[in-house]
Amino acid sequence: MHGTDADVDPSELELVKKLVFDRSEKLSDGQKSNGNNSSDQILDEVMLMYVGRTSAEMLAASIVSLKQSLPDADRIQILQDLANIASADGVLYPNEVQFIVGVAKQWGMEDFLSSTNTDT
Question: What is the pTM of this model?
Answer without folding.
Answer: 0.57
